What does this fold into?
Amino acid sequence: MVTVSMTVNGRQVSKEVEDRRLLVDFLREDLGLTGTHVGCDTSQCGACVVHLDGKAVKSCTMLAAQADGASVKTIEGLADGAELHPLQAAFKEHHGLQCGFCTPGMIMSGADIIARHGSDLDEATVRLELEGNICRCTGYHNIVKAILAAAGEMGGGMKQAAE
Amino acid sequence: MYSLSYRRASSVEEARRLFKEASDAAYLAGGHTLLPAMKQRLAAHDVLVDLGAIADMKGIGVSGDGLTIGGGVTHAEVAGSQEVKGAIPSLAALAGSIGDAQVRHRGTLGGSIANNDPAADYPAAALALAATIRTDGREIAADDFFTALYETALEEGEIVTGVSFRIPETAGYAKFRNPASRYPMAGVFVARHKDGTVRVAVTGAGNEGVFRWSEAEQALSGNFAAEALAGLSVDPDMMMGDIHGSPEYRANLVAVMARRALGSLGSAEAII
It folds into this structure.
């Protein structure tokens, strides 16, 4: 067993877990943060994306122990109280989800894309950057539209919104 | 995943010691090959020694004709580095084309080189850029490093602490990715060095892993342009064949990617 301490959504947490505990299972089972999903469990689909020290990572492909001392943000930590994060609001506005299973990962990846590209963001970039996130419902069209809209909302440039 | 003990090393020396103390340890770098294999129980180790906190393996630096990158530097850091873009733009392009954004945030140069996956990108750059692989005990020329599929010249417990790439006059990289796995089915790195020598390295296609395509190197020595490769092809008997593509298909891809690489010289954007 290993004692794992980290900041999750601004809250300091510390738990004793098995050394082989995956970060995604730590979040879901030990902390009850079930917004982070397990889709493929093979590092492909991106349903498990969280931010580790500000960078998007696949939490199914990390041990919780590797995140010891780090700051983790999950989908539950994105909204400001009752106020949706601009990306969450944009997904709602632009119908960026159908079944919703991929949505937490899509939104966490979207936030990472906007953080890294800022005003350089355009449709082609969003589509390329989303290659680590799989959606089986939407055809991606409205997801891309929502991320571009949020980028505009958040002060990043929106060169060309998908129509 | 079978039960294991996790140990985080803060120095190369500590990592070596922790590795030696265990009966069947493995080093954990980015973990994006090792952990999926362990989750499927295709691999098992009693101890994982995490190299992720070793500060000495994090740097990027240019000195003279060499660009040295620490073994613990992530693909995203290489892709975004102004020093890398300035010295060898096509190396930044290659790093930025590996996997996806999340994988690039975790995967490391040292991990990729040490694993020597026959479809990994970095081994092609290491061969074409006449790299020196630096370990905790010695330096190994890239030409001597990649010995077979998933096999390297590394001794048991030896750690890739960094890689020094020779800065070329110009270079380019192009690959054709499997649309599902995103691994290259053929990736070709071409480089013309300042002493006039040309190196062409191929990944993803060869049945013995990464290799130098000597006929292309000779053809390009006189004229470093795609037209010099006209009519040149690799032997399909040297190529991998699987459900994704026959040896003949891969042989053709190698020639096409080599021409495309020559069309991307000096670009920090990958041709994919």
Summary: The first helix of chain A runs from residue 23 to 30. The helical segments of chain A are 23-30, 86-93, 103-117, 123-129, 141-153. The two ends of chain A are 52 Å apart (CA to CA).
